[in-house]
Amino acid sequence: MTTSIRQFRQSAFIAIEDIRLQTALENATGRFRAARATALADLPDPDAMRDHFKKVRAATIANLAEHLEAFERNATANGSHVHWARDAAEARQIVLDIAKKHGVTMAAKSKSMATEEIHLNAALSEAGIAPVETDLGEWIVQLAEEPPSHIIAPAIHKTKEQVADLFTKEAGREIPADIPTLTAEARRMLREKFLAAGMGISGGNLGVAETGSIVLVTNEGNGRMVTSLPPVHIAVMGIEKIAPTWDEAALWLALLARSATGQPLSIYTSIVTGPATHPPAPSPAGRGGDSPLPDGRGAGGEGDVDGPQEVHIVLLDNGRSKLIGTKYEEILQCIRCGACLNVCPVYREAGGHAYGSPYSGPIGAVISPLLFGLENFAGLPQASSLCGACKDVCPARIDLPRMLVELRGDEVASGLLPWWEAMAERGAAMMMGDATWMRVGLGFGRVGQGILSDDLPRLAKKSFRKMWADGDVK
Ligand code: SF4
Q: Which one of 3.40.50.10420, 1.10.238.10, 3.40.50.1220, 3.90.1700.10 gives the CATH number of domain 43-321?
């Protein structure tokens, strides 16, 4: 995985020329933007809620080790197996070992960015285990043999005609490009896979430390099937996705759905608190019975035979812990809602594939170099106009533009920028820091602009200062 600025530009230019892609991107991101605005407007004071959430996330990350230990303790007491993965290779190995132990030949998956991050599907296939994506969007991109192009809407770039072609090939008969027919076909084809799978693999939108529960947010119900039908369930989750208590989890969920899809709450919010037939851990004082919820709903316990016999939770570090205490710690507050993608003028033109990373858009431009190496993703911090729209919509108010600028600084400091670009940036900084140099530079620019591309905007014949001095400005 690498994306230089040259590769990003090339991919973006191809995407910009693709009218079908541009239409699909603008329609989908436009719908998400409008829905988010409406959903947040329904709240009494969304800005205060976001301010509060920012504080909650910052405080959680500041004490992450403590919350993770509490999570592990409670999840283990519920009968789940908690595994720690330092990097992608360890996480893949943990999943493969569990699959091998149970003789699994097919795994049903629900949508998970963490498993995209560790390239789990390729590892499963190599080990002779067929991974089947069961989220509709993920399944479409799996059939197309493409990576997802949006954090929450993996097939955002596909039209219904393209989906119909993929389904026709998979089913071996003509499937019309009609959305109800396509979804019915997907349901029919996927249901067989759920029943045949020996293992279910999910992500985890968040883990709740006080009860050791994993929360999954979906709109299709496939998350429930993946976590309850196969005999073994593995959840792979980044270590930063922890809410200390259910109060914080409730705030998280309220902002996640509104920011992501503009829903007050996603259609399915599933809570996994250990395997079936195992008594859950005693609840904290003041909480309702053995339920993970404050009002006692969802109480399980011995005799609850639904669900898998084994639940494994893989806590994935993969570069996250090294960000704690640095100028990039704030990025760990992200809840992967995707709102910053939908407003980003660069993402909306370039699409997700140009980023060359499972994480695209402004969050991808920051987190990909941080997790996977600045030298590998040197182009991404440049893939932003720094307009600030991402920070404006972020439910955790993450200052993505600040970190993009910091990463650009790191690139210069570590010599990752080509010499001519570093020179040009130094020249621009010198010009902008001194009025005389600015005048001289613009003077040369006026003379030299004739040889530049016609696509660039022309400099005015007279500068504003000159117009002011000549009395042209009234
Ligand atoms: S950075 Fe903010 S807006 Fe972007 S995905 Fe993360 S939480 Fe959502």
A: 3.40.50.10420
